[in-house]
Amino acid sequence: MTTIDDVAKAAGVSTSTVSYVLSGKRTISAPTRARVERAIEKLGYRPHAGARALASARTNVIALMAPLRVGVNVPVIMQFVAGVVTRARDFEHDVLLLTQDDVGGLDRVTSGSMVDALVMMDIEADDPRVPVVAAARQPTVLIGLPQDPEGLSCVDLDFEAAGRVAVRHLVRTGHTDVALIGSPPEVLRRHTSYAERLMRGLRDQARGAGVTVTVEACDATPAGAVQAVDTLLATAPDTTGIIVHNEAALPHVLARLAERGVTVGTDMSVVAVCPTDVALAQRIPMTSIDLPAEDIGKVAVDMVMARLGGDQPSETRLLAPVLTERESSAPGPAAS
């Protein structure tokens, strides 16, 4: 691996001169600077993050904490990651991906000089990581909304509004008995913010509209989908509209409904809360509320870079839900 000493020898200068060229902290003559830059290019030298930190107090690295917990949908998580990574490159920043959720590891990252800023995902209502990053010197943006952000900026889909929009759509199309096939039980036990907010909006809208709503947690497996559908049809047989907020279970929910003789788009109206590509990949194009995961990741980077520049106060941005009607919608019994 090429070192700063190799560059200095190739350019015929001291290592401190190379360091000054890299950091810009001291004026170097144009011929000497050009000689150093030619040596850097020829040798392919890249200063590591620690060296850059010593030279400029910046690492040009953003930490992204995306814990791969039980119950999370990894393909959807990776859409958020893609948004963060691609937008970070626009700012000439790299991304350090942290897939564990231990507070100790987070403390090690924030207490050193490894990263300039953090983006943190899969936020719980009462998240033990929030006080750690709130006390850190690096700015942090949360993808999610805890009960108390402690002065941190947050961005996410407005899941509470998404729940209201989904119920409103079903009521408008004549459904009076609706259901949610939702997140896995372990996600609900962690009080993950997005799941709780969607259920809160759904229940509030159903209550206000005077319609019956049934909620079934659903493991993100074929067996979990079978159990959720069978339980729903047994305990709430009058249900004619289902909201599915579980990307991994969605195709298996549709398959089980078909096995039970229920035709989606005719007998049953189904609304999915998921990224558009997931909605379009099903056996029938799904009426859906889009989860713009990649866009949210990009917004998170914009926000954290603004905080890093010192010109952005803390804020919360909740993206308005957008429902697109497709073939999985069906008129309900009360449709005029």
Automatic annotation (TrEMBL):
InterPro entries referenced in this protein's UniProt entry, alphabetically: Cro/C1-type_HTH, HTH_LacI, LacI/GalR-like_sensor, Lambda_DNA-bd_dom_sf, Peripla_BP_I
Entry keyword Transcription: yes
Sequence ranges assigned to domain HTH cro/C1-type in this UniProt record: 3-46
GO molecular function terms listed in the Swiss-Prot or TrEMBL record: DNA-binding transcription factor activity; transcription cis-regulatory region binding
Taxonomic superkingdom: Bacteria
Domain HTH lacI-type: 2-56
Keywords, sorted A to Z: DNA-binding, Transcription, Transcription regulation
Pfam families: LacI, Peripla_BP_3
Span of the signal peptide: none
PANTHER family tied to this protein: LACI-RELATED TRANSCRIPTIONAL REPRESSOR, LACTOSE OPERON REPRESSOR
Name of the protein in question: Transcriptional regulator, LacI family
Organism: Promicromonospora thailandica
